[in-house]
Amino acid sequence: MVPLALGWPFLADIGDSRVTVAATSMPIPGTLLRLFQPLCVLTALAWLLPFSALRATGSDAGAAFLEELSLNSAPSQVLTVCHGFDCAYRDQFVLTRARISYLRGTLAAAHSARDERKALGRVVAWFDREGGRVASTVGRIAYAGAGTKSGPGQMDCIDLTANVTELLLVLERNKLLKFHRLGEPVSRGLIIDGRKPHTTPVIVEIASGTQWSVDSWTKAYGQTPDIITISEWRNRN
Predict the structure, then answer these.
(1) Which helix (H) or strand (E) holds 167?
(2) Considering just the CA atoms, what is the radius of gyration of the chain in Å?
(3) pLDDT tens digit string along 107-143?
(4) pLDDT tens track for 163-189
(5) Cα angle vertex 40, ends 36, 46, to 5°?
(6) Most buried among 23, 39, 110, 118, using CB within 10 Å?
């Protein structure tokens, strides 16, 4: 059954009986795939450049990142799980009532920005596990890249940045975040400086303005992401 189109916000109204998951990995058509490869490097380099005047910041910047990958940034009860490097394969992940209940309950328990970051770590790890079962990425490794395992069962930094950014966008738009907002994805590494390009999702602490990386690429399937300040993240190799 096709998921119902609901107005935003939608999280209070979705029931398990109203949606089904499309579980087949669908590769991007060849023309688009050629445009994207090797996107992990190209996108990372692009996002190192100053954000143009046409781009907004915060959640709008996160949405722009998704749109550059031809991912839907509009309100939806269906998320896309990118995998196979450069978002070459995509699977649907439906926000059922049970999944929504988990998100609400986990984040509602946070009473400070520090608590919320810990809760987000659990939520992102949960999404990686649940999405991995849909996308068949349960064997994904940390630091996946050109010199490691590849194929539809693995995820590079672009896959994971897209997945986490899309999840964070849903949480923010549905007011499930109290102490943070979605930030603009950040990249580091220029090859010529001895570091490989790498991109991470970002949250911004509302009270202080501090930016935090939510980096799942450094962790294997289902593990809690590294949530560290962007200044610390930039200094890592």
Answers:
(1) helix 157-173
(2) 17
(3) 999 999 999 999 999 999 999 999 999 999 999 999 9
(4) 999 999 999 999 999 999 999 999 998
(5) 85
(6) 39
Rounded to whole angstroms, what are the CA distances from 117 to 6, 112, 217, 224, 227? 29, 9, 17, 11, 7
- Comparing C-alpha atoms, which of 119, 130, 229, 122 is closest to residue 177? 119
Q: Are 181 and 172 in contact, with CB atoms under 8 Å apart? A: yes
Helix (H) or strand (E) holding 236: none
- Collapsing DSSP states into helix, strand and coil, what is residue 91? strand
Q: How far is CA 26 from CA 79, 84, 87, 88, 112, in A?
A: 14, 11, 10, 8, 40
Kindly give the interhelix angle for 157-173 and 39-48, rounded to the nearest 10 degrees: 60
Please check whether residue 186 is in contact with residue 213, taking contact to mean a CB–CB distance below 8 angstroms: yes
